[in-house]
Amino acid sequence: MLPGDFPSIIPTKPDRKDMVRFGILGITGLAGLALVVIMLLFVISAWLGRPLSMFGYDEGPDQPIVFPHTKHVQDVGLDCTFCHRNVTKGASATVPSVGLCMTCHTVVGDESAEIEKLRDYHAQGEPIDWVRVHRLPDHVRFNHQAHIQYFSEQNNILPAAVCATCHGDVGNMKKVRQVEPLKMGNCVDCHRDNSASTDCSTCHY
Question: Which of 17, 103, 129, 170 has the most Cβ atoms closer than 10 angstroms to its Cβ?
């Protein structure tokens, strides 16, 4: 090879605009990757087990108003169905409206800051934006009424005891949390144990 046969290739130094562009692309790429990883972890956790503790769901989410189930269930003696009134009538259990809470707290709870929050919601005519604790995948249809009715009639169990099968002993929880994975395997095993249908169309329709 003789000198001069090939031109020498001298790398050029990237200018300031290129450096800024590369920096922005790098930061954007890292942020996008981190977001995708977080989303995948959250979605996978919904399928594989209880929600990940890194999201704070192991202790249950903070609610806009601290609602002590222990006080309402143990001290006052309220049943699940008193507040979750649709649980024996429809697919959704529903959360109580502000108006239902105010049937008691118009006169009860003057010393509580949390009750004052409740009264403010009521005065402004706004619903309480409760944070959801339990969630099944969107392609699953779970009918609360059907489960309450089946266990109540077949095994002579009170609705509150049926609720505890999936939700745990909420009456003893200071902060409501998810205690069961609520995976497909749990549902299928329960259906088999209780001679209920395991046909796909029972839950997926």
Answer: 170
State if pTM tops 0.85. no
Residue pair 100/83 in contact by the 8 Å Cβ criterion? yes
Euclidean distance between CA atoms 62 and 12, whole angstroms: 56
What spatial distance separates the first Cα and last Cα of the chain, rounded to whole Å? 75
Question: Per residue in 125-173, pLDDT tens?
Answer: 999 999 988 888 888 999 999 999 998 888 888 888 899 999 999 999 9
Quick: pLDDT tens for 29-50: 999 999 999 888 877 766 665 5
